[in-house]
Every structure is written in C-alpha cells, then in structure tokens.
Amino acid sequence: MPPTRQPREGSSASLNGMTHAQVLLRAYARATNMLIAGRRFITSDGELTALLEAFGAQVITPDYSEGAPSTPTGLDVIFDLDEGAFPRPGAITVLAPGGSFQGVYAPDTSLLRGPEDPERIAWARMHMPVTEAAVRRIAHLLPGRRIGLALVLEPKTAALALMLAEAGAEVSVFGHASETRDDVADALRREGLKVFADSQATPEQENALAREFLAEDNEYLLDDGSHLIRMAHDPGRAPTALSALRGAAEETTSGLRPLRHFPLRVPVIASNDARSKTLFDNAYGTGQSCWTTVLDIIDPDGLGAPIPGMTVGIIGYGDVGKGCARFARALGARVSVVELDPVRALQARMDGFAVASLSEVASTAGLLMSATGEPSTIPLCALEALPEDAIVTVAGGVVGEVEIEQALAAGWTLTEAGPAHIQHLRDPNGKSLRLLEKGEGINYTAGEGNPIEIMDMSFGVQVAALTELLLHGDELEPGLHNLPIQADNAVAQAALDALRGAGNAQ
After folding, report:
1. Beta-sheet pairing, 413-416 with 391-394
2. 147: which residues sit within 8 A by CB, 6+ positions away?
3. Statement: residue 211 has pLDDT above 60
4. What gap in Å lies between CA 6 and CA 149, rounded to an integer?
5. Geometric angle at alpha carbon 260, from 258 and 263, rounded to 5°
6. DSSP per residue over 77-125, as a string?
7. Is the pLDDT score of 64 beyond 70?
8. pLDDT for 327-384, tens place per residue?
9. What per-residue confidence (pLDDT) applies to 303?
10. How many CA atoms are closer than 13 Å to the CA of 305, on its beta-carbon side?
C-alpha cells in the first residue's frame, strides 16, 4: 500500500520556506491524486506560489474584498494559511492555519483521506471526463465484447474497467503483484468483474494468474509493458489466446520497445506514441508522481524532506527524465543529468541542467534516479560510487534497472530499513544506501500512480485505440500501428476543455 500519512496535524512544517511549501503541496497531491501542472491554485503565500509555478501551475491571489465572488468556481484549489481558515464550498481546500497543516477538503467540504479512502474509485471516476466520454461514444459497440485490461491495478484503472463493463463489455483484469492494490482488486470483484491479481503473489503464482487471464480468450487487450501481448503469442503458456485475440494496444515506451522487433500476429495500436499520451503522461504525470512518492517515503512524518540543496542525479533525458529533472529543480535540488544521446544531453544542458558522466554524478549524488526504462541503468559501479546514505530509486521502470542481483553476488546485503518502502543496500565495507521499493517503479509500486487527469488522458488514448480496433481492426495488418492523428487531437482537446472547466469534454 502507498504511504497514507498526512503531515502531522498541528506540526509547523516551517524549517524554511521551500520545505513549508513542499509539505503542503505533497499533502494536496496525496489527498487528491490530482495534477499540479496546468491547474489553477489560489494562495497568498509567496513560497507556495513560487513552488506551484515551478511545477507548471497557474496561481492567483485570493480576493475577499466586498463584491468579489465568495467562492471559486470550477476545479480551483485553495491553500488557506490564515488563522480561522475553513473549507471553501466549490473548491478543493488545503487548510493550514498559522502554517500548521489541518487537512484537505473536497468541493463538498468533506475530508479527503487519501489512498485508503474506500470511495477512491468513485473519486477518480468523477475526474475522468475524457475517458468517460470516449467509452460513451462507443457504448453501442461494446456489448458482448471480451476486453482484457493488463494495467497497473489502482483506482483509475478500476474506473476504466467499470465504465467498459457498464457499457456491456465482458471485462477481465490482470495486475502484476507489485502493481496491484488488493482493495481495488476486491472492489472490482464485488462488482462482478473477473480479476487475476494478488499483491502477495510469488513469481510462479503471478505467471499462473497471467495464464488464467489469457485463458479468458479476450478479443481485445489493453496492455502496460506488453507482457501479456507477448505471452499471448506463446502457445506453451497461452494456447488459445491468440486465436481469440483480434487486436491490442500498448501504452508504455518500455512495452513498445520489445514489440518493435517482435513477430506480432495481430494489429497493435502504439498508444504510447500518441502525442496526447507520451507528452503528458511521461513528463508531467510521472515526474510529479515519482517525486511526491519519494518525498512521502523519505519523510513519512511530513516535516519536510531535505531536498533543497541536495545533489540529485537523473539518468536519462527522455520525456520521463525531463519531467523528473524539472520537478527536482522546482523542489530546490541541484540537478545533474546523465544522458548518452548527444542530442538529449544538449537539450538537458540548454534546459539549464549540468550534464556529466554516470561516475561523476554518482560520486556526489544524495539521490540517484533512473528514468530510462532500460535494464542495468544503475549498474554496480554506480552503486559503488555513491556516497553513504544516498537514495536510489527508479521512475517508471522495468525489472533490473538497478543491478541489485549483481550487487548481492558481489557481497552486498539487502535488508529492510524500518520505514515502509525503504531497504538498506550495504557493501562489504559497511557503506549503506537507501534503496526505495527494491528498485521498482516508485510511483506505481509505492504510490498511487500518475495523477487522475493524466491517466484520464492516457486511458482516453487507450479507448481511442480500442475504438480504432473495433471499427477498423479487420483492415489492419498484424504489427504496430499509430493512433490516427485526428483521434489523438480529439483526446488532447477534450483534456484541455476539462482542465479549463469548460464542461464540454463530452
């Protein structure tokens, strides 16, 4: 389960301005799982304004003068730090009277409890108008269609599954153990969906669940990482899956990479390559969710994580790396980028970041983050170069991005550190590193995944891909296909309308 503790009620959280702002921003993100970039925030606090704007938010100063509107409209978020602060109807309100955090409140003034809230699926669905409208447009095509979802199993995925099922589709859901929230899986089972997921499953049990999922003979498969697409092509593990499968869609860079050289026997829509997915999910969504999750893990009491002034190394400057680097700088870190591609390295330099070799960056990094989606991005030599107590983590991720097995073979040890999601990785000489969530993708294994609005766009793209397969799948040759540009643009326009509060994302 992701960390759920809010900053301690009544704590000052005022070590300095940046820390104070960091704590309150984290409280908002954890309570709501909503986006920061592009959203309008209302606050009179200068440090919060600076941090919010660095994250890409629009910030306005509250106006409580006579004749001014008493309440905001739309999807505004108010940070109220005044004495006597109270929840504002019609807006999300973060209350911190006198600088002491009190709580985050929904527009109906109810307290938002964060990931453990039993109404979390409903909350996510309430803020997914792009996906909801996309499913509604194809509702007449869905009755009786067998659709499999092999996605990170958290509230937003559950909302998508319920939308499809309510439209008449026969929906089954698979989740990798490290990507499964059991409460969400149970909620879907109570709604009558077939769910093949268990957060405690061993690798052998997870493989058995995957085989059972593919034995459902889904006609369409929406995948994350392409594990199930590739498994469906293996007659030894999924003997009937391919005969039933009419098409699939893949939503990740790491999932498309092996498919580009894979002998596909069905059409697969490269959802990840849609601009409305990769330009936003990876840079804005993953950047925000990785950093807020990391901060919650290393600072569980909400007193302020010591990121200002810390040297942070970001490995990779693709879309994920760009987002992680930008948000690290917004938090006050000194950011250095490691990038082998000279064009991307030049981009990093012109974006104002130091660019250096992995050995140079690792030798001084207080935190080293892989953002490549490639194995062995953080090799044993980098672990050896890191200073005592450095933090090692992965944004997004594939298995083996941190060379843990190689380290253990070289005499290192791996033990739980005490706080949730942290392990001690010690070398033979006694140096200890803080490894987060055993080197797996930090935002979805220890956090709640990307913000709701971001996944609304990504799932909007997945539904657009499903639409293409339903309408034109029989005309497509086996292999990878791009989502038509018109469908891509439609998702982006709907998301823009929703973020504006225009009410026309239908």
Report:
1. unpaired
2. 164, 169, 170, 171, 172, 218, 219, 220, 221, 222, 466
3. yes
4. 32
5. 90
6. EEEE-STT----TTSEEEE-GGG---EEE-TTSPBP--TT-TTHHHHHH
7. no
8. 999 999 999 999 999 999 999 999 999 999 999 999 999 999 999 989 999 999 999 9
9. 87
10. 25
Confidence of residue 396 (pLDDT cuts 50, 70, 90): confident
Count of residues making up the chain: 506
C-alpha to C-alpha distance for 279 and 313, rounded to whole angstroms: 22
CATH number of 120-276+450-494: 3.40.50.1480
Fold entry, domain 280-445: Rossmann fold (3.40.50)
Q: Do domains 120-276+450-494 and 280-445 have the same CATH topology?
A: yes
Quote the CA–CA distance of 62 and 93 in Å, as a whole number: 13
Q: List, in order, residues 6 or more apart from 418 with CB less than 8 Å away.
A: none
Domain locations in the chain?
17-105, 120-276+450-494, 280-445
Written as one string, the DSSP assignment of 11-36 is ----SSHHHHHHHHHHHHHHHH----
Residue 161 has pLDDT above 60, yes or no: yes
Residue 11 near residue 429 (C-beta atoms within 8 A)? no
- Identify the pLDDT of residue 193: 98
**SS3 for 433?**
strand
What is residue 188's DSSP assignment?
H
Nearest to 10 by CA among 115, 114, 100: 100
Q: How far is CA 2 from CA 183, 293, 437, in A?
A: 12, 8, 11
Element (H, E) at 427: none
CA distance 317 to 282: 11
Contacts of 454 (CB under 8 A, 6+ apart): 35, 280, 281, 284, 285
pLDDT in tens, 275-287: 999 889 988 999 9
Residue with tokens 């397969």: 469
Write out pLDDT tens, residues 489-500. 999 999 999 888
Looking at the whole model, is its pTM more than 0.85? yes
Q: Are 24 and 101 in contact (CB under 8 A)?
A: yes
**pLDDT of residue 21 exceeding 70:** yes
Contacts for 400 with CB less than 8 Å, ≥ 6 apart = 375, 376
pLDDT, the chain, mean: 91
